[in-house]
Amino acid sequence: MFGFKFVCLATLAAVLDAFVVPNWWRLQATTVALVAHSVPVFGLSATTFGSSIAFADPEGMGFAYLVTPGCTAALPVFLYMAAVFAYPAAWKQRVYGLLYGVAFLLALNVLRLSSMAWIGMRFPDFFEEAHLSWWQASFIIAVAFTWWFWVQSLDPAKDRLRRRLPAFFSQLGLVSK
């Protein structure tokens, strides 16, 4: 039953990606803004022009690319959501899976795009291969791993990590006990 539900929902995700996402200019603009604000981690500065981003480093090197609707990670997020909705779990568990999983995948996408700027500046001959092969494959694996991690968290016997995270975060002072 999971397989049938997933195929149906994944088909819906592909239709949404093909017909709805190209019109989501706000998602594209948000992605551009997040990337522009995150590239200082890589020692770069960024200037945005619509959906284009121009990057510069302290040595004066520059690189630019266009953030297309496909760069927003909408389709991988839709596929992750399809897998979560298709899996037999309580709605509360699905909501947690969606909140944490989607946030993680969107953050990973910003990291992907930011690192692509660094690669484009430092290794321009490797940019296309990194963009079309390495990061694409890595992102698909990350979607599968994120879903698998969520499924594992549903079994209390296997959920050691979820029990340990609050104590870890409270030791860091990020949450109170």
Sum up the structure in keywords.
single chain, mainly alpha, 3 strands, 66% helix
How would you characterize the overall build of this protein?
- The protein has 177 residues and is mostly helical.
- The protein has one domain (2-171).
- It is 66% helix and 8% strand.
- It has helices spanning 2-19, 25-38, 74-86, 91-122, 127-153, 160-171, and strands at residues 45-49, 52-56, 62-66.
- A 3-stranded antiparallel sheet has the order 1-2-3, with helices on one face.
- Helix 1 (2-19) runs antiparallel to helix 3 (74-86), helix 3 (74-86) runs antiparallel to helix 4 (91-122) and helix 4 packs antiparallel against helix 5 (127-153).
- The longest helix has 32 residues, at 91-122.
- The model has no long low-confidence stretch (mean pLDDT 86).
In short:
The chain is mostly helical.
Class by helix and strand content? mainly alpha
- Low-pLDDT runs: none
Look at the structure and give the mean pLDDT. Answer: 86
Indicate how many domains the architecture comprises: 1
Instruction: Enumerate the strands of the largest sheet in spatial order, edge to edge or round the barrel.
Output: 1-2-3
Quaternary arrangement of the chains shown?
single chain
Q: What is the element string, with H for helices and E for strands?
A: HHEEEHHHH
Q: Kindly state the percentage of residues in helix.
A: 55-70%
What is the approximate shape?
Answer: elongated
> Major beta sheet, specifics?
3 strands, antiparallel
Output the number of helix runs: 6
Distance between the termini: 40 Å
DSSP, total strands: 3
Using only CA atoms, what is the Rg?
18 Å
Instruction: Report strand %.
Output: 5-15%
